[in-house]
């Protein structure tokens, strides 16, 4: 029998008999790619809690006046608060390996048996009896080829030379980076041209059909983008230079990592006309590259900022010329004394100070603006953040809302952190990494994580592993070492990959391939996208 992966309670309805009351509509996502809905009263949640026991947070009972018309309850603050609390309670049980197998819980979320009588059924009955159970909306058929991609930084060539890559793990590799310069040309890091040649040669010789795409820009490489896009002459120069590189190196496309149009990013010049100019650039680039080569862009969870400084409400014209948008769903919260999740799947508790910055919100924001879901790649980080903190749970953010940055800082950085080596005597000591990023591989090298026989990873050397149900991500902490690490592991990578597939996205990409423990996390992506490793 399939198992429950997640639940959502975003809707409710009312019933007037035997007296007015609220009915909560629970959307149940299962691991066989189906969903169904069940309807429950608050009293039924209370009964479930009494049956299961446990100390999970539960929304308290409060009186709701029955004198008002039930239809007016739809936007009531109490109802919204209760829905969030009930969803949080069910999510906690799903992640409890003992309680999630209890018959009472399984029955609670199971669709009721179909009625034998042929009388017309109400909408409530149809939902609660599973009449609306179906494949997830927009889910591609089984013949769809999901994309497993990753960024290959040029600076990783010493530790991960191209000839050592198992190209069978990747449909697309984005080579990072070249950067636009002040004359609408492109600049290369020392040795990166030779590395790119070796990468293309190794990929073509592997027999795996891996596509190599040149990524342009990055966090520290976007200074000249606005100027390069500002006039027709500059755009033409940049397009011609990029097309020449594609042809010279035998590449499969171009990835625009502009951080960010009409926003300063790392202190870059920017203009209110950036988004409009970018569209004209995409038109020209597509014309010169032809219809088959990849054109992608690394983006945040929000659409590009328009002339008025707000996210564009319609990106359908951009979509005509693009193959993918690569949603960088990471760096949402970095290091702090009260750390939050690096890469939240969602905001299931409704408590995040950045509710627009998670995978679920990104999908909604981009598709509502007209980007086809089949052109969205979900970004998965193979790194985390080390914080000096004694917290035992994650918080939304330590940054006041009034000064919260519009975009996270430091995406696709050009430098990598170096953690403790295996020869250090103090195993698990991450104090030298406070305030920095740390790769998944470095967490293992440092002794904070250890690989289990089943391929998962557990805490070591005095760390405690815990799970943040609100963001669906893990973290480890050690109060004696005053250290908290927020990161992603096999479980959270699996959850996000399944979400991408069920939602009908094109697939997933990682930043960056050199930060994995071998190919452990990439194998999780392959297993859940394609059913293989």
TrEMBL record:
It catalyses: Random endo-hydrolysis of N-acetyl-beta-D-glucosaminide (1->4)-beta-linkages in chitin and chitodextrins. Keywords: Carbohydrate metabolism, Chitin degradation, Glycosidase, Hydrolase, Polysaccharide degradation. GO terms for molecular function: chitin binding; endochitinase activity; phosphatidylinositol binding. One of its GO terms (cellular component) is extracellular region. PROSITE patterns: GH18_1, GH18_2, PX. Residues 404-429 are annotated as: Disordered. Residues 146-532 form the GH18 domain. This is Glycoside hydrolase family 18 protein. It comes from Pholiota conissans.
